[in-house]
Each structure stands twice: as C-alpha cells, then as structure tokens.
Amino acid sequence: MMNYLFQKNSNRLFYNSSVLRIEAVDPVQALFLKYVREYFQKLKQNNGVIFDVSPELEKDRAFKQKTLAERYFGNMDPKLFEKFPEMKYEEPTLDDINISRAHPLMKKS
C-alpha cells in the first residue's frame, strides 16, 4: 500500500515536472527525455500500473508489501487500508449532581 501511494505521488510530481517540457540540448539529454516520455506514455496506457514486470520482481514486491502490512498493521485485511475508518462516538453517561450532599473533604470544621 505504501509503495502504491509513493508511486502515485511520485508520478504526479514527475508529470508536473519541467523536465518533461524542456527541449534537449545535447544527445544524452535528448535520449533521456525520449525514454522518460515513453515510460510515462506506457504508464498512462496501463492506468498507472507498473508494466513489463518480471515474475521475480512481482513476487519480491508482494512479499515486501505483505511483510510491511503484517509488521505495522497486524493480521488485518489489506482492503481495510484503502478506506477511511468509521468512527463512532458515544455520549458518556453523567451522574446527576446532588448539591445537598456535601463531599467529605468539603465539610466545614
């Protein structure tokens, strides 16, 4: 989950980056910009999901995600992390104030 959020935020930041809007001056920079643009084009086509993933890499990512979820959230269902928790507040029951009965420490001596 954390990996997914980091990926989404970093993609959002990089989409708005001026690096993609500049024109390349030297051939190395032109090649870099070409590959960066291709990467983000493929990423958009896959709806933000990582593409060309090897089975080993996917297995490693799933293991790390499971380990982090177990370490920080216990054995909870991973789907619970994707929605906002429901909060319930109950009104406390208060005792009536009995003014006629004085507290033992407040007695006049």
Automatic annotation (TrEMBL):
InterPro entries assigned: ATP_synth_f6_mt (IPR008387), ATP_synth_f6_sf_mt (IPR036204)
This protein's UniProt keywords: CF(0), Hydrogen ion transport, Ion transport, Membrane, Mitochondrion, Mitochondrion inner membrane, Transport
Database matches in Gene3D superfamilies: Mitochondrial ATP synthase-coupling factor 6 (1.10.246.110)
Subcellular location: Mitochondrion inner membrane
Keyword Ion transport: yes
Superkingdom of this protein's organism: Eukaryota
Molecular function (Gene Ontology), one example: proton transmembrane transporter activity
A GO cellular-component term linked to this record: mitochondrial inner membrane
One GO process term, biological-process aspect: proton motive force-driven ATP synthesis
Main location: mitochondrion
Pfam families listed in its UniProt record: ATP-synt_F6
Family: Belongs to the eukaryotic ATPase subunit F6 family.
UniProt-recorded name of the protein: ATP synthase-coupling factor 6, mitochondrial
